[in-house]
Amino acid sequence: MRILLVEDDPTVRSFVLKGLKEAGHNVDQADNGKDGLYLAIGEKYDIIILDRMLPGGIDGLNILETIRGQKNNTPVLLLSALSDVDDRVDGLRAGGDDYVTKPFAFSELLARVEALGRRGHNESAPETSLTVGDLTLDLLSREVRRNGQKIDLQPREFRLLEFLVRHAGQVVTRTMLLEKVWDYHFDPQTNVIDVHVSRLRQKVDKPFETAIIHTVRNAGYILRPAQD
Amino acid sequence: MAKDRTPPRHRRWFYRFAIRNGTGKRRWPIRSAGINFALGYGVLFLISATLFLSFIWWSSTSLLNDHVRAFIETDAQELRHRWNHGGAEALGDAITDRLEQNIDDDALYLLMDRHGRRLAGNLPGWPVAIKKMNHFYELTIRRYTFTTPAQFKAYALPHGFRLIVGHDIRGRTLLSTVITRTVIWCAVMISLLAVGGALVVRDLFRRMVGSIARTASAVANGDLNHRITLTGSETDLVAETVNTMLDRINRLMEGVRQVSNAIAHDLRTPITRARNQLEEALFSASSPDELRVAVDKAIGDLDHITGIFEALLRIAQIEAGARRSAFTIVDLNQLLANMAELYEASAEDAGLKLKLNITTLPALFGDERMLQQALANLLDNAIKFSPPDSTLTLSAHPVMAAATSSNTNERQRPLGLEISVQDQGPGMNDADILRAHERFFRAESARNTPGSGLGLSLVQAVTSLHHGRLILTQANPGLKVTLFLPLTPEAEQTGRSTTPTQNTS
Q1: In whole angstroms, what is the distance from residue B162 CA to residue B79 CA?
Q2: Minimal Cα–Cα distance from B259 to chain A, Å?
Q3: Considering its fold, how many domains does chain B have in total?
Q4: Residue of A nearest to B454 (CA)
Q5: Cβ neighbours of A81 (radius 10 Å)
């Protein structure tokens, strides 16, 4: 993916830049709002990572509002040290697609960037079913089959699996799951998400030869079709 | 009249007397509220007294005049009657007679013949001012050694005789003296009262404000425990508000102090640990793998510190009361069901049973996110401290107000609602329960479990944000944590509009 990174702190910038390049992305960078805005308007990106507070009079929200004002719908991920719920709401209201607060784990940022990039591609047509390898989800009848065998899932388990399937091949973090599947925005101290994922595995992976839901150490989970 | 006492009007009224100061702006020179108050009151009183006495003066003089005129008329009538019977002689005798019998010495007569000779009476001669007959004159005449006002009326008699009947009205002068004197005395006494009153009122004001000022200056000097003593007077309203404000400031200060202590202690510990680990790895790691493990641990410690910061900031933010902007109508039934669903799995994973005991709750006006967070903290705690194979209970029910006879016809509305989480863990002793909501407080028995000691502080902050109470009770075994959340009028109103009920209030 072609990514624009606008961040003024040199350490954070080089850290993110290095990580994204290692993940195989093509990254342009800017260290102030003016250059960032210039690039965001002039070039075509798959995703823009914006720091909220930038030197030079133009901050992240200004850039975001400007490009949205030009009907530019490039997914934008806001990066900020402001962790306040209201700040998050402000950012999303201004047209941001996701919000990551500093300090962050790189795996979290990468997972969210890739999820956003994916979203830009396949949101065109409403699907009635999702298929990954031998797993099929019927979105209308809420039926799940693997290898032709029917799997009974609770409504929440279905939503969890659906989210994993929609982001198949990408790492999804626990926070992402809590936010997107449960719509909760707090940090649970116990391993609630792990427990739900392991229950899902019991039903989706256990009865079959190969597992499709994998744990990624220090990051989260990934659903990958079984290799033949 | 009462209007005169209100300050703006009062001020305008005095403007013409106000002095000009250097800037050319007019300003009433007296600043003391007590003196101004008394002065205004005195002036008002003086004006009322003058008006009142003027009225008395006017009505009694007119009464006196009427009386005198009537007396003159009847007297003249009778004298003319004498004339008709006995002529000038009889009239003269009658006049002399009357003058002799007139003890008050206020009757005035003059009878003259056609040549202008005085036949009888006590007037020395015909007053020059009296020109018309049958007309009342009020003149000042000289009698003996003094001058006095008098009413006269002249009558023409047959054969060119003329008669004057008059009446000395020095009684009116007397009355006027009395009234003037009264006015003067009134003024003197009112002035004295006003001055005395001013002093008393000023003293009262000073004493009222003094107590507040003393407390405020004590607080300004750093003694936050000083409070205004309540006296039962009107200033108690201010005093109570100020006291409440001071209590709040005190609590906030206490919070800040606690936080700084906590930062000094509870944040330094993980920071030190992370630092030591990194340092040790730097010096003694012999393989990249060892280094990796150490760095990994350090990152974990830093994440823990970040978590503490986040929790502290959130608590501070909630306590500042700024988050009430996010209040909406919250469906607690849905919230509890979702929360139970989320945690039921982790309870089961820990070998626990999550029992639900939930009755339908009314809608609450609150912050959904915060309530979720608070409930999550309680459930996290309960799971953390429960022994294996025990039961957790999440219960919720509305709290009804005690029925009173006055509103029997009104359908009973709940006063608030209670949500509680009960575990069968080690519980807390009474001393710990009292301190449980303090930041970073961790019971002795909880020292070895992971956590920051901020969970309940956050729950406490969220509860306070909703004007509720956090109650910890020993459940033997275990601990029961109860949130009491009162139902606010906003929620009631909206609840009423969504569910049609007959509205009697």
Answers
A1: 12
A2: 19
A3: 3
A4: A189
A5: 12
The residue among A83, A106, A183, A78 whose CA lies nearest residue B311 is: A83
Window A:82-121, CB contacts with B under 8 Å? 83-86, 103, 105
Structure tokens at B427: 């519980």
Helices and strands: H and E segment counts in chain B: 11, 14
A185: closest chain B residue by CA: B369
B306, B308, B279, B307: which is closest to B294 by C-alpha?
B279
Q: How far from each other are the two terminal CA atoms of chain A, in whole angstroms?
A: 27
- Chain A environment of B376 (Cβ under 8 Å): 184, 186, 188
Shortest distance between the Cα of B332 and any Cα of chain A, in A, equals: 15
Range of the domain at B420: 323-399+414-498
Residue A194 in 3-state DSSP? helix
ipTM of the assembly? Answer: 0.81
| Alpha-helix runs per DSSP H in B443-488 | 455-465
Q: Which helix (H) or strand (E) holds B146?
A: strand B146-156
Task: Give the residues of chain B that fall short of pLDDT 50.
Answer: 1-7, 9-11, 13-22, 405, 408-409, 493-505
Interface test with B, best of A186, A201, A203 (most B CBs within 10 A): A186
CA atoms within 13 A on the CB side of A135: 26
CATH topology for A129-223 is: Arc Repressor Mutant, subunit A (1.10.10)
Q: Which residue of A has its CA nearest to B297?
A: A218
CATH class of A2-121: alpha beta
Q: Is A125 on the interface with B (CB under 8 A)?
A: no
| Contact (Cβ atoms closer than 8 angstroms) between residue B325 and residue B296 | no
Rounded Cα distance between A79 and A50, Å, is 6
Which of B301, B303, B306 to mutate to probe the A interface, most A CBs <10 Å? B306
User: Residue A195 and residue B369: Cβ atoms within 8 Å?
Assistant: no
Please state, in angstroms and rounded to a whole number, the distance separating the CA atoms of residues B112 and B157.
Answer: 10
Question: Does some domain include residue B80?
Answer: yes
Cβ proximity of A172 and A114 under 8 Å: no
What would the pLDDT profile of B169-222 be if each residue is shown by its tens digit? 877 778 778 878 887 888 788 778 877 877 887 787 788 788 888 888 888 888
**How far is B143 from B146, CA to CA, in rounded Å?**
6
Per the CB < 8 A criterion, the answer to whether A159 and A59 are in contact is no
Render pLDDT for A206-217 as a digit per residue (tens, 0 to 9).
888 888 999 998
